[in-house]
Amino acid sequence: MTPPPDEMAPASRLDTVTATGSMPAKTVHVRSWGCQMNVYDSQRMVDLLAPLGYRPVDEAEGADIVILNTCHIREKATEKLFSELGRLKTTKQEKAESGGNMILAVAGCVAQAEGPVITARAKHVDIVVGPQSYHSLPELVARASRAKGEPILMTDFPVESKFDHLPEESVPRGVAAFLTIQEGCDKFCSFCVVPYTRGAEYSRPPEDILVEAKRLAQSGVRELTLLGQNVNAYHGEAAGGAVWSLGRLIGAVGDITGIERIRYMTSHPNDMDDELIAAHAQVPELMPFLHLPVQSGSDRILARMNRKHTAAEYLSAIARVRAARPDIALSSDFIVGFPGETEADFQATLDLVNAVGFAQAYSFKYSPRPGTPASSAADAVPEAVKSERLARLQDAILDGQTKFNQACVGQVMPILLDRAGSRPGQLHGRSPYMQSVHVAAPTHLLGAIVPVRIEDARALSLQGSLAAEPCGMVA
Ligand code: SF4
Fold first, then answer.
1. What's the pLDDT at 25?
2. What is the model's pLDDT at position 11?
3. Contact predicate 213/224, CB 8 Å
4. Is the CB of 187 under 6 A from ligand 1?
């Protein structure tokens, strides 16, 4: 689950854990593809190696450890990995010629799914480690240092939770951070690799999550995004045996001093329970934004996707959330050209998009993932048809997004200024509705939540200026 196969983060991203902190002798470079959960995992890998004296660096060249944290959601993920590994072969040789040793590790979902292929095809890879085993990195690095060319493969689903072995954060996360609370998925949508690469659903105990959230708040985090492949299926067991829902957890996170904004991602329509919907009405820290993937508007295609809900049930979930929080901004994922999709099926998707009016959405052409049930379907949709439908869908999504953004012009909104803007004198921020906002503001306001009058709106961002008056909405 994730962008295309919903549940996660939307966008093909290649994030790099950046360098901060003191200057020990050894360095690690982590490259992260895919969803926010991979970004979180990459940060935790850096945390795991920090006690061994490794500091994060922005470049692979010269690094003592290079970790590629891969994502299997995107098309051609394996080919892209091998292309990157080819480039790093030279980097590793250069390090050896200068008398050093670079340990090369492949982590994430491609490692989980293709481990033996990776070690067979790329002999210069030292470690292949799956997403449930990366807490063993310190031990794997020690073994790789001694192994002299023998690759180490660790792609089991260990009995113990990796979360029990993760150390405290070694580098500050900034003002907005991710916190993984749930992993794996039991839904088995027919197009998705997640149940095979991340395993069965697992929810962290609420106490552990609250301890981590408090630490993050104390380090300056003001906005926390709770992550899970199927985050609203969260059912963490507390020490006394009580099982907490996501709604209850959100309430407790909202009580933490310093946490002013909460988001969660990614959800399944069938898991929008009453406690979670009530949280949208009752927890002021919970932002009015919901990413709720639907994938298709056709019941016939939803059944073939094994989504276990209909379009009407999806719309009903949306209506319940809107009743609790009328101004909520909605986001979704769509797969276009799933096997057997007819023009009528596709029209049902367009109808759903127009009926909901999404504030944003992510859409992708279907492409088969090896090992998934849908990958053997005989009635594939021709590429040209997929492309043409995708263009029409994206026009409809962009239209809704533009309308949503334009409706914000004239409002004064609380904006969390999270980084420098692209132009001098400008800062970038996030609205409660997850919009990107560009604001003319001095740098000392970085990290603050300030009232901003929205003056202009494009399809992808808003423009505004600092306002003297208070916000016209909930922060
Ligand atoms: S199988 Fe799970 S993770 Fe994958 S798309 Fe379905 S609900 Fe999301």
1. 78
2. 29
3. yes
4. yes
Give tens-digit pLDDT for 86-126: 999 999 999 999 999 999 999 998 999 889 999 999 999 99
SS3 assignment, position 14: strand
Residues of the chain where predicted confidence (pLDDT) is lower than 70 = 1-24, 74-75, 159, 470, 472-475
295 C-alpha to center of ligand 1: Å?
11
Spatial distance between the Cα atoms of 223 and 418, rounded to a whole number of angstroms: 10
Residue nearest atom 6 in ligand 1 by C-alpha distance:
189
Ligand 1 centre from 188 Cα, in Å? 6
AA letter at 464:
G
Say which residue the tokens 């890998």 belong to: 45
* The ligand 1 atom nearest the CA atom of 188: 1
DSSP 286: B
In sequence order, what are the residues at sequence separation of 6 or more whose Cβ sits closer than 8 angstroms to the Cβ of residue 31?
14, 15, 16, 42, 60, 66, 67, 68, 69, 84
Task: Determine if ligand 1 sits within 6 Å of the CB of residue 265.
Answer: no
Closest ligand 1 atom to residue 5 Cα is 5
User: Ligand 1 centre and the CA of 286: distance in Å?
Assistant: 24
Say what the pLDDT of residue 10 is. Answer: 31
Burial class (CB in 10 A: 0-12, 13-18, 19+), 171: middle
Residue-level pLDDT at 203: 96
**450-475: b or e for each residue (b if 16 or more CB lie within 10 Å)?**
bbbbbeebeeeebbbebbeeebebeb
Residues sharing a CB contact under 8 Å with residue 144, sequence separation 6 or more, in sequence order: 103, 105, 126, 127, 152
Q: How far is the CA of 269 from the centre of ligand 1 (A)?
A: 11
- Is 401:363 a contact under the CB 8 Å cutoff? no
Buried b (16+ CB within 10 A) or exposed e, 372-410: bebeebeebbeeebbeebbeebbebbeebbeebbeebee
